[in-house]
Specification:
Tetramer of two alpha and two beta subunits. With 347 residues, the chain is of the alpha+beta class. The chain is built from 12 helices and 10 strands. The protein is elongated and about 115 Å long. It binds adenosine-5'-[phenylalaninyl-phosphate].
């Protein structure tokens, strides 16, 4: 047994010399000291078969060898660790004298997108489904389904772009084209209440000025349920505006005409910049026109698949561009689509 111990001791030392990293060290440890089949462990197990007096002597000897090997093993581990640390500091060294890289320009979201996303968040938290819809649309969904008679002058108020030689199709002049589409999609045969909000781009053949664009964004929403009234209409809009501006808002209704609501209103909000005193943003009126709204016309409910004797609804729609103008105190709507980076970089 003495010879075996000596042999293992020498073998271990020889192999330890060749170890260059932690992986090699771990292999070596396994080979000699693994509990199940390590070479040194096997010798220790063999002690059990010896007679008591020989066991004592060999046990002492084996412990001395073990201590020796453990010491060597530990020194090797420290040596490898020191080497790894030296490599690491070399690999990750920072040259503090190197000149700074030029600052990278980062892109960001357009102010109208920011306003839209905020509105979507608030509406979704109030239980509204958020939907998207087609911009090239049939005249039916933009006007016909919304109770616009064929030759009604209200169609002209929207200054619609029609497809050449096919007046059944147009670029939608408002996102209200989604009202009947969404009622039909979610009403489950006219038996289910629906809350939906739908932002999107709209097009009008407008004479451009500081508050009118030919392409702009609207945000609209409706609720259909059993007993909807004007109190619900005002409460829902106020809650949404509160979420958008992070404070209570004061609103007022004026009569307004839209063929798809009855009664219909224009809603103003007390100017948040001057709190009604009059300033540049509200053109010294103290109030800012925010949106069109009203209770859904029975013909529209019918077109959406509901029985108007049983169901009722509210709807409101606003210009996102104007909403962003108000939020950021921007006086000319044309900045938004100008693509001028000096303007956009401010957001
Ligand atoms: C409508 O478009 C109705 N669909 C809104 C509505 C929905 C009423 C549901 C009732 C119920 P109006 O044409 O007023 O309404 O436009 C709505 C908003 O879009 C306006 O308040 C305004 O903020 C914005 N808007 C209208 N025309 C322009 C334009 N040329 N450029 C920028 N924003 C505009």
């Amino acid at each position: 047994m003495k010879d075996e111990l000596k042999k293992i001791q020498e073998e271990f030392k020889k192999q330890l010399k060749e170890v260059a990293d932690f992986a090699g060290l771990s292999d070596l440890e396994q080979k000699f000291f693994s509990r199940k089949s390590g070479e040194f462990t096997n010798i220790m197990k063999g002690l059990r078969q010896l007679t008591d007096d020989v066991k004592k002597e060999m046990g002492q000897k084996a412990n001395e060898v073990k201590k020796d090997l453990e010491g060597l093993f530990e020194s090797k581990r420290e040596e490898i660790q020191a080497k790894e640390m030296a490599n690491l500091t070399e690999r990750e060294a920072i040259d503090v004298t190197q000149p700074l890289l030029p600052k990278k320009e980062r892109g960001h979201l357009h102010p109208i997108t920011l306003a839209q996303e905020k509105m979507e968040d608030v509406a979704a938290n109030m239980g509204f489904i958020i939907e998207d819809g087609p911009e090239l649309e049939s005249d039916y969904y933009v006007f016909g389904a919304l109770n616009f008679p064929d030759d009604h002058p209200a169609r002209e108020s929207m200054d619609t772009f029609y497809v050449l030689e096919n007046e059944d199709w147009c670029m939608r002049a408002h996102v209200s084209n989604m009202q009947v589409r969404l009622m039909r999609k979610y009403n489950e045969g006219g038996t289910k209440a629906v809350r939906a909000a739908y932002p999107g781009k709209v097009y009008r053949n407008e004479a451009l000025d500081a508050t009118h664009e030919h392409t702009f964004h609207q945000f609209e929403a409706f609720v259909v349920d059993k007993t909807i009234n004007i109190g619900n209409l005002v409460a829902v809009i106020k809650q949404l505006l509160k979420g958008l501006y992070n404070r209570d808002v004061e609103v007022r209704l004026r009569p307004g005409y839209f063929p798809f609501v009855e009664p219909g209103f224009e809603m103003d909000m007390k100017c948040l910049f001057c709190m009604g005193k009059g300033c540049r943003v509200c053109k010294n009126i103290g109030w800012v026109e925010m949106l069109g709204c009203g209770l859904m016309h029975p013909n529209v409910l019918k077109e959406g698949g509901y029985d108007p004797n049983e169901w009722s609804g509210l709807a409101f729609g606003m210009g996102l561009t104007r909403l962003a103008m108000m939020r950021y105190s921007i006086e000319d709507i044309r900045h938004f689509m100008s693509g001028d980076l000096r303007f956009l970089e401010q957001f």
